[in-house]
Amino acid sequence: MTVHPFIEAEKRAGHSVKRACELLKVSRTAFYARRAAKPGPRAVRDAELAEQIADVHTRSRGTYSAPRVHAVLKRTGAGCGRRRVARLMRTAGCRRTSERAPPRTDESAPFLMR
What is the pLDDT confidence band of residue 94, given thresholds at 50, 70 and 90? Predict the structure, then answer.
């Protein structure tokens, strides 16, 4: 678990960053370096893939789940794993919707009526 959000909250509250860093045994240099850091290459790639996943998902009218989205991305040359696609779909809120309605029957449970 990271303590940097706690130190940031203390800073916003007007408390001393130096004292918070001392109590949590974190160097001030590390706190400020992390605060000014750019996102890593994985986070940047995840953002790019999330856009592509959302595009594929909307083009399929929401019917594609992770395996099919992964297959489409693989065909277009975006190399990534199926589990990564599934994780990004979960975080983006892309869920598969069924186009077909469930089958209708006259009886709700005919096998129970015997």
Answer: confident
Q: Give the whole-angstrom CA distance, residue 6 versus residue 79.
A: 37
Among 33, 35, 34, 31, smallest CA distance to 22 is for 31
Q: Is the pLDDT at 113 greater than 60, yes or no? A: no
36, 54 contact by CB (below 8 A): no
Domain ranges of the chain: 4-36, 41-92
Three-state DSSP state, 21: helix
Length of the chain: 114
User: DSSP character for 50?
Assistant: H
pTM of the predicted model as reported, rounded to 2 decimal places: 0.60
Spatial separation of the C-alpha atoms in residues 8 and 43, rounded to whole Å: 21
| CA dist., res. 24 & res. 8, Å (int) | 12
